């Protein structure tokens, strides 16, 4: 209630100083808090305060890679029998018989064949850039559309909007090992030959001679270390980036300044209500007693009725039922004609604009 007294006094003071009522704030919430009658206030934009700080971010994330180590082979040299050793006999006056037998020309052996590794191509979704937030410029209030029914706000600063940018992903194609390379052993059967020879059936005299076996050198490739895969981890790398953040948002503040504002006129003297059963006689209306109706006028009426304890609602500028009843009660108790008229506005101390304005007269 004290604040409503101050608002009514400030409105009357501004009117007396030559200010128009529409120059006031649109709502009570936009008026200076704890205002003092006879003081002037200006609304000052306090800019936002920024600070710079260092932040450590991931430059390259940690990842795992697979390395294929090929098999290791070696050449092995070994000797094989080309022709076996034998014994030759020379018989004298001996009897012979024919013998058929199978001899080994080349013994059985084996070889290794390499079967290459088999790979498969796969695609996977990896993170390219994480989600982050960024500031975008909005539409300042001065550039917003206005029209009937829209409240005109005071000038404000620049508008910034914080939006979230989603993370970005990419498809990466890589090869994975399905079957490692391996060695397959292939058996080579021995080569034989059927020979027919004569042997002594009954020797007479034998000349014996030993013939040594013949050997040859053969090189074969053998597996020393089979192929294998190794998995190793590459650690993440980091870097320092410089960023800015808001430590104090921009805001509007009311500040007092020196002005030549005359003191507010005192409220009109209280006029006691008429005695019971007294009937009000409507006086003759003047030609300029009609009042131009507006939302500003209704708000001033609500403030003046609130100072006089007739009205307890909010000062919205809407002529609602509560305002109408409070105004009628004030008019009945002060013997004033009903309706919105100059006599009632003068009794309330509310400035108004008459519908006609004779020369030299002000409402």
Please describe what this structure looks like.
The chain contains four helices and 18 strands. It starts with a helix and ends in a 15-residue tail after the last helix. The N terminus and C terminus are likely disordered. The chain is mostly beta strands. It has a two-stranded antiparallel ribbon. Strands 2-17 form a two-stranded antiparallel sheet. The protein is rod-shaped, with a radius of gyration of 57 Å. Helix 1 packs across helix 2. The protein has a domain of 145 residues. The longest helix has 15 residues.
Strand content: over 45%
Q: pLDDT average, as an integer?
A: 77
Structural class of the secondary elements?
mainly beta
Dominant shape? rod-shaped
Overall number of strands:
18
What is the tally of helical segments?
Answer: 4
Radius of gyration: 57 Å
Q: Give the spatial strand order of the biggest sheet.
A: 1-18
Give a short account of the largest sheet.
Answer: 2 strands, antiparallel
Percent range of helical residues: 10-25%
Pick out the low-confidence regions. Answer: 1-26, 149-154, 261-265, 267-284, 359-363
Assembly type: single chain
Distance between the termini: 27 Å
Which sequence of SSEs, written as H and E, runs from N to C?
Answer: HEEEEEEEEEEEEEEEEEEHHH
Topology:
Layout: H1 2-16, E1 40-46, E2 49-60, E3 63-69, E4 72-83, E5 86-92, E6 95-106, E7 109-115, E8 118-129, E9 132-137, E10 160-165, E11 168-179, E12 182-188, E13 191-202, E14 205-211, E15 214-225, E16 228-234, E17 237-248, E18 251-257, H2 295-307, H3 321-333, H4 342-348
Antiparallel strand pairs: 1-18, 2-17, 3-16, 4-15, 5-14, 6-13, 7-12, 8-11, 9-10
